[in-house]
């Protein structure tokens, strides 16, 4: 992509309404633009990141055996009356009437909708287990939308739902998702700690929140200091039964809880082993058994032909919130520092002097070669001052910056800067593609 043609409306000034780094940087880097309170337009650079996160989340869901579906954002209020949640949800739910005056709502979550699908089609224990996921926009009319996409009113969520015959099988599905979440966040370059949590309006008694530590996080959390040292390696655990069991045991044997669950009187840790901090909730999983299947009549025939309610769990990941969470975890005073897996482009190519014929020709050639090699590159071919070019690249945080200027070019040399470390090196231009392909 040529920067001269790209829609990248960066801002020089820090917008006054942005209180935290990720919000500031997303606005300044031209990733999003607010449409109304807590509702955002996603611009090209922001959308590329959102899609990359979405794809990692999707890939890990599929590896765990879950299957993708897509449910509507607009749901019938009748379903929510059946489960009894229509009134419970209160003002967070955006209620809508159609031209026939029928009641609808913009889904804040989808337990009712999915139960309606599965009660129609899952009939026998032979149809189980099933795990269905979607990546879809949700709407919650939050009292205080803030921090940009971190607490929006409209936000993108991966939600999935497991269906099992009995509690034991249901808990196994829950554990498998517990592992899928650790693998997903590790792949995104985040250390997310699973914490015992309240299940709130979703219901049930088994629930974990996955929390990324950050000083700007909204939750106060308490955890075993050993969590500082364990970094889950995505390759360490597969989805085998033994690995699922070992992973859950390893992670749940250490104490970690959000402030809603933390009680100093019952905390098993000595003060010296307890750490507290602030964190961002990036995922939340629940096992709630028959809370929805029972009132909504989602029953299944067991092996003796007896009807039993489906045992269900639900699992959410804040896909759009993750964009902000990753930036909170990875930025400096000059801008964003994208982990390579979610970076909008891997390489920023800077032509230092577009008015210098040789410099322009060498940059154009390298741009073409990088594209041919399948490397995602944003090429700054604008007629701008070098200082402006460098600061744009630092702001948008691409992992590698490659600069071609007249002086280096005289020796056939390009400069490569690693955004994360600031480390610079010189390389023959002819070796750049090979070095960046590695
Ligand atoms: P929170 O406690 O942050 O309000 P929640 O517990 O209400 O979140 P869940 O119902 O567990 O949220 O939703 C699943 C995931 O969706 C959350 O873990 C979070 O990552 C994300 N999420 C929830 N609310 C928002 C929001 N307003 N904006 C962006 N992401 C959100
Ligand atoms: Mg939650």
> Helix fraction?
25-40%
The largest sheet is:
9 strands, mixed
Q: How many β-strand runs?
A: 23
The stretches of 5 or more residues where confidence is low (pLDDT under 50) are none
Could you walk me through the main structural features you see in this protein, from its secondary elements to its overall organization?
The protein has 438 residues and is an alpha+beta fold. It has helices spanning 21-28, 44-64, 77-83, 85-88, 111-121, 167-187, 241-252, 319-329, 357-372, 386-396, 406-409, 432-437; strands spanning 32-36, 39-42, 67-68, 74-76, 94-97, 103-106, 130-139, 154-164, 192-196, 206-213, 219-224, 256-258, 274-289, 299-301, 307-309, 311-318, 331-332, 335-336, 347-351, 377-380, 400-404, 413-418, 424-428. The strands form six sheets. Strands 3, 7, 8, 9, 10, 11, 12, 13 and 16 form a nine-stranded mixed sheet that branches. A five-stranded mixed sheet has the order 20-19-21-22-23, sandwiched between helices. Strands 4-6-5 form a three-stranded antiparallel sheet. Helix 1 (21-28) crosses helix 8 (319-329), helix 2 packs antiparallel against helix 6 and helix 2 (44-64) crosses helix 8. The model has no long low-confidence stretch (mean pLDDT 95). The structure holds adenosine-5'-triphosphate and magnesium ion (MG). Residues 109, 140, 142, 151-152, 155, 157, 281-284, 316, 318, 320-321 line the site of adenosine-5'-triphosphate.
List the helices and strands and how they pair.
Layout: H1 21-28, E1 32-36, E2 39-42, H2 44-64, E3 67-68, E4 74-76, H3 77-83, H4 85-88, E5 94-97, E6 103-106, H5 111-121, E7 130-139, E8 154-164, H6 167-187, E9 192-196, E10 206-213, E11 219-224, H7 241-252, E12 256-258, E13 274-289, E14 299-301, E15 307-309, E16 311-318, H8 319-329, E17 331-332, E18 335-336, E19 347-351, H9 357-372, E20 377-380, H10 386-396, E21 400-404, H11 406-409, E22 413-418, E23 424-428, H12 432-437
Parallel strand pairs: 3-7, 19-20, 19-21
Antiparallel strand pairs: 1-2, 4-6, 5-6, 7-8, 8-16, 9-10, 10-13, 11-12, 11-13, 13-16, 14-15, 17-18, 21-22, 22-23
Helix pairs in contact: 1-8, 2-6, 2-8, 6-7
């Amino acid at each position: 992509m040529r920067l001269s043609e790209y829609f990248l409306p960066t801002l020089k000034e820090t917008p006054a309404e942005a209180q935290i780094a990720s919000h500031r940087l997303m606005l300044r880097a031209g990733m999003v633009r607010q449409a109304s309170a807590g509702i955002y337009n996603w611009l090209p650079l922001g959308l590329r990141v959102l899609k990359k996160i979405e794809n990692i989340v999707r890939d890990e869901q599929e590896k765990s055996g879950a299957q993708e579906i897509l449910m509507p954002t607009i749901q019938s209020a009748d379903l929510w009356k059946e489960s009894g949640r229509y009134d419970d949800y209160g003002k967070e739910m955006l209620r809508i009437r159609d031209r026939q005056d029928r009641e609808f709502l913009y889904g804040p979550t989808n337990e009712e909708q999915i139960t309606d699908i599965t009660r129609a089609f899952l009939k026998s224990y032979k149809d189980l287990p099933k795990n269905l996921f979607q990546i879809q926009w949700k709407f919650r009319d939050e009292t205080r939308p803030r921090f940009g996409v971190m607490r929006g009113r409209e936000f993108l969520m991966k939600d999935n739902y497991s269906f099992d015959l009995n509690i034991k099988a249901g808990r196994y599905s829950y554990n498998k998702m517990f592992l899928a979440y650790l693998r997903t966040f590790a792949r995104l370059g985040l250390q997310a700690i699973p914490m015992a949590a309240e299940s709130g309006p979703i219901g049930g008694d088994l629930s974990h929140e996955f929390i990324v530590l950050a000083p700007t996080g909204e939750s106060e959390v308490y955890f075993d200091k050993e969590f500082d040292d364990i970094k889950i390696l995505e390759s360490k655990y597969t989805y085998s039964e033994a690995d699922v069991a070992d992973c859950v045991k390893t992670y749940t044997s250490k104490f970690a809880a959000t402030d809603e669950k933390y009680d100093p009187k019952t905390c098993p840790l000595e003060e010296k082993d307890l750490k507290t901090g602030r964190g961002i909730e990036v995922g939340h999983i629940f096992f709630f058994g028959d809370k929805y299947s029972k009132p909504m009549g989602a029953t299944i025939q067991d092996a003796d032909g007896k009807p039993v309610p489906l045992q269900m769990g639900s699992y959410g990941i804040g896909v759009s919130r993750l964009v902000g969470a990753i930036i909170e975890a990875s930025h400096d005073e000059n801008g964003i520092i994208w982990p390579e897996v979610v970076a909008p482009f891997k390489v920023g190519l800077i032509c230092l002097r577009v008015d210098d014929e040789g410099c322009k020709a060498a940059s154009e050639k390298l741009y073409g070669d990088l594209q041919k090699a399948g490397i995602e590159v944003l090429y700054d071919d604008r007629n701008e001052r070098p200082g402006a070019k460098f600061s744009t690249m630092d702001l948008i945080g691409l992992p590698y910056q490659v600069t071609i200027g007249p002086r280096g070019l005289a020796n056939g040399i390009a400069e490569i800067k690693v955004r994360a470390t600031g480390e610079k090196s010189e390389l023959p231009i002819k070796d750049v593609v090979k070095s960046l392909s590695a």
